[in-house]
TrEMBL record:
Coiled coil: none annotated. Residues 478-488 have a biased composition (Acidic residues). Belongs to the protein disulfide isomerase family. It is found in: Endoplasmic reticulum lumen. GO terms for biological process: protein folding; response to endoplasmic reticulum stress. This is Protein disulfide-isomerase. It comes from Cryptotermes secundus. Its EC number is 5.3.4.1. The keyword Repeat applies. The keyword Protein biosynthesis does not apply. Keywords: Disulfide bond, Endoplasmic reticulum, Isomerase, Redox-active center, Repeat, Signal.
């Protein structure tokens, strides 16, 4: 179907028409029809995309499904898309800096989209923004239709919708956009779903099919209940689930690295689901398909090799990510359970990556450091020690390498200066966390002051830094972590 956008030019009394194409239910906007398209439709969600973008390709089928669901509901909400690589002016006008970027227009006024990337999540978010936060379920048919329409649906059962518990429920419904919320006070609906008294029930088309809230009906309890029960017992890590995994209430995760090609999914997943039930609101179980090219950096981040898979690790997300490795690598139910229980009981020690110390680590002008010899060399009170924390895949590190080698050669015969480097992707330190590459840090003689370099990455700049005892070229306290041109570690949503 093609929508005609007609612009009447009063001066010439001539009508010009531009066609808005419809691609499988999604309107195609260009610079010529964009303004009229968003103004002629009260509600429009617009995706700014790039044809080559992997995240955009993953979103595309879900976006089309969402458009169809809205059309089937005879909703006034429209979905549209803009090829931002073609319509660069439009993208710049709307502050598009990454792909996909989604903007929701209400009567022509935009707000940022903050919902999920599945069809259900997109529709739920849009309905929340254009209607009541919770649908009123006045009959059994209303309730069945509401529950059947989504993979996850949350229903509040309250005889009095003005009660404190009901108000807490509606507050959470207003705050959580990813899932549809319904509310009922009808006796027949209570009876149909065997509910006695006030409660919240989450209906889902996976795992147990239903979960009932236990404990007090407070905002905190409802939100934690919804975020934990709305995810599968074992969540498959991908572009769509990353936001929920890392943005959820549960900050401790068991990561299972499995190869689908080698049959690990069928062999281990069911047993893991059984264990996951016991730790549901304490530890989130996540499966990562090691066959996916996008997941190779994650495997490297945990210092694993392909031949170690199947494998598991535990992580705790706080200000710094803490990682834990099991003593026994097998993914048996007993081993998974004991590993998670020991973690909860505080019996596990953090796992820090470390390489073996090369025999020739000090044979070159630039000394090679690993976790085991770092403190001995870097904190030598008789010497100024400059350390480059690098990553083998980092482009900026590769550019710096010949300059750093020259620096090592310049100070080769010095009795008071050491030039060193450490692969920070394969070696970790309890006292130092590296967030971007390359990071250049001077450990001074005497007091062992730690000074980060923030000057030009030239032989002259680095030499002055060393010769001035770290005064010339050091980073100001608020600049030490602002070097936006460096290569960062994988973000939490990439892990």
């Amino acid at each position: 179907m093609i929508y005609k956008v007609c612009i009447l030019l009063a001066i010439s009394s001539t009508v010009f028409c531009d066609e808005i194409k419809n691609d499988e239910g999604v309107l195609v906007f260009t610079k010529d029809n964009f303004r009229t398209g968003v103004k002629d439709n009260e509600f429009v969600l617009v995706e700014f995309y790039a044809p080559w973008c992997g995240h955009c390709k993953s979103l595309a089928p879900e976006y089309i499904k969402a458009a169809k669901k809205l059309a089937d509901q005879e909703s006034a909400i429209k979905l549209a898309k803009v090829d931002a690589t073609e319509e660069t002016e439009l993208a710049e006008e709307h502050g598009v800096k990454g792909y996909p970027t989604l903007k929701f227009f209400r009567n022509g006024s935009p707000i940022d989209y903050s919902g999920g990337r599945t069809a259900d999540e997109i529709v739920s978010w849009l309905l929340k923004k254009t209607g009541p936060v919770a649908a009123v379920l006045a009959s059994v048919d209303d309730a069945k239709g509401f529950i059947d329409a989504s993979t996850v649906a949350v229903v509040g059962f309250f005889k009095d919708n003005s009660s404190t518990a009901a108000k807490n429920f509606l507050a959470v419904a207003n705050a959580v956009d990813d899932y549809p919320f319904g509310i009922t006070s009808t006796d027949d609906v209570f009876s149909e779903y065997s509910v006695d008294g006030e409660t919240v029930v989450l209906f889902k088309k996976f795992d147990e099919g239903r979960a009932d809230l236990e404990g007090e009906i407070t905002e905190k309890n409802i939100k934690k209940f919804v975020t934990s029960q709305s995810l599968p017992l074992v969540v498959d890590f991908n572009h769509e689930t990353a936001q929920k995994i890392f943005g959820g209430e549960i900050k401790s995760h068991l990561l299972m690295f499995l190869s689908q090609q080698d049959g690990h999914i069928d062999k281990y997943l069911e047993g893991a689901r059984e264990i996951a039930k016991e730790f549901r609101e304490q530890v989130l179980f996540v499966s990562i398909n090691s066959d996916e090219e996008d997941h190779q950096r994650i495997i490297e981040f945990f210092g694993m090799k392909k031949d170690e898979i199947p494998a598991m690790r535990l992580i705790r997300l706080e200000e710094d990510m803490a990682k834990y490795k099991p003593q026994k690598p097998e993914l048996t139910k007993d081993n998974i359970k004991s590993f998670v229980q020991d973690f909860i009981d505080g019996k596990l020690k953090q796992h820090l990556l470390s390489q073996d110390l090369p025999q020739d680590w000090d044979s070159s002008p630039v000394k090679v450091l690993v976790s085991s010899n770092f403190d001995e060399i870097a904190f030598n009170k008789d010497k100024d020690v400059l350390v480059e924390f690098y990553a083998p895949w980092c482009g900026h590190c590769k550019q710096l390498a010949p300059i750093y080698d020259q620096l090592g050669e310049k100070f080769r015969d010095s009795d008071t200066v050491v030039i060193a480097k450490m692969d920070a992707t394969a070696n970790e330190l309890e006292h130092t966390k590296i967030t971007s590459f390359p990071t250049l840090t001077l450990y001074t003689k005497g007091e062992n002051k730690v000074i980060q370099y923030n000057g030009e990455r030239t032989l002259e700049g680095l030499s002055k830094f060393l010769e001035s005892g770290g005064e010339d070229g050091q980073a100001a306290p608020d600049e030490a972590e602002e070097e936006d041109e460096d290569d960062d570690l994988p973000r939490k949503d990439e892990l």
